[in-house]
Specification:
Length: about 220
């Protein structure tokens, strides 16, 4: 899933982003309420994790603004405020779930999975498929023609992003922003290296190539070149 995390605490944000990324999700982080709202309004996210107490703009007002804009993306509220009235206020403001700090990451992940299943019941299997290539996002497993293909975490996220945009031409910049982060040098060859490794794993030994290089434009996962 593509997840937005709005959290001002550097350590807490790093913990959540690292854990979600290692679990196979695509994660974008915003460090204050104003930036977070702008990202939430313009980005295409499957789920948002929003801290309640934020600089610039608090979490509940962000949620209220999203709902006013008819954005119904599921929101998990994180907060040190854990009294019953606090939780009720958060849910009534438009939050879909409320998790009190401190929390175990395993519970955070379980709640995210539950929200995803509740909001997108048609995607309950969490599977993406192209021809005989299939990703099971819940089991974090990739197969082609029934054969398991072991991928490193970054390769898995790269393939997931490509499969979510099957048929589209994705530039190196788009891949850097969505699968890595803004800190990478646009001239780095990290994309080429990972694409090469991924192509070897999913295409080598099969009659039909699925991962294609579009000269001068980027890469595309599709049935034909």
């Amino acid at each position: 899933m593509h997840i937005l995390v709005i959290e001002d605490d550097v350590e807490a944000a790093s913990y959540v982003v690292k854990g979600l990324t290692e679990s196979g999700h695509l994660v974008r982080h915003a460090a204050d309420g104003k930036t977070g709202l702008g990202e939430a309004l313009t980005g295409d996210y499957d789920l948002m994790v929003i801290d309640r107490m934020l600089p610039e703009r608090d979490g509940l007002s962000i949620i209220a603004a999203l709902r006013a804009a008819t954005i119904e993306t599921p929101v998990l509220i994180l907060s040190a405020l854990g009294e019953v009235d606090d939780r009720v206020e958060g849910l009534r403001a438009g939050g879909d779930d409320y998790l009190t700090k401190p929390y175990a990451f395993s519970e955070l992940l379980a709640r995210i999975d539950a929200l995803s299943r509740r909001k997108y019941p048609e995607q309950i299997t969490h599977k993406l498929k192209l021809v005989d290539l299939e990703i099971d996002l819940l089991k974090h497993k990739v197969t082609r023609a029934g054969k398991i293909i072991p991928l490193q975490p970054r390769e898995f996220r790269l393939l997931e992003y490509l499969m979510r945009h099957t048929g589209q031409v994705l530039s190196r910049t788009m891949l850097l922003e969505q699968v890595w982060d803004y800190n990478f040098d646009p001239q780095t060859n990290v994309i080429d290296v990972h694409i090469s490794r991924l192509r070897t794993k999913i295409d080598k030994g099969y009659d039909q190539a699925l991962l294609h290089t579009i000269r001068g434009a980027g890469y595309s996962l599709r049935e034909t070149a």
